[in-house]
Amino acid sequence: MSDKDDMPGLEVFFDAARRHAAEPSAALMARIDEDAQAVQALAQRPAPQSTRRSTLSSQLYRLLGGWPAMTGLATAAVAGVWLGISLPEGILDGTSDAAYLVDVAPELAFDLAGGDF
Question: According to the model, what pLDDT value does residue 94 have?
Fold first, then answer.
């Protein structure tokens, strides 16, 4: 089955559209040409040079993705430090503290109580 058999009433409209093809006016074409010339002139202008050199921190800031990424990294760092130095008090019941506290390197200990060294 062809498309002509499906909808015979539309073929009249398609034929009329083919006979009267729309042409843009000369004024429209002139405006399009002026706009294109203006865009080309802007594209050919050299970009302004920045006189300020970017520092390592600003380069790192841009590399990581700006403030959203930096706040995520800062939050993860703070959470890592907090989890690293806090004792698992929810797991320990007071009788078997030694079973969960394994000191791998006793010379690398934090003194959080503020005692003498």
Answer: 55
For 109, the token pair is 């200990």
Tell the residue number behind the tokens 């970009």, with chain if given: 47
14-60: pLDDT as tens digits = 888 888 878 899 999 999 999 999 999 888 878 777 667 788 888 88
Burial class, 65, CB count within 10 angstroms (exposed 0-12 / middle 13-18 / buried 19+): exposed
Residue 92 burial (C-beta neighbours within 10 Å; 0-12, 13-18, 19+): middle
- Residue 64 neighbours by CB distance under 10 Å: 13
AA identity, residue 69: A
- In this structure, what are the phi and psi dihedrals at residue 52, rounded to the nearest 5 degrees? -90, 130
């050299």: which residue's tokens? 46
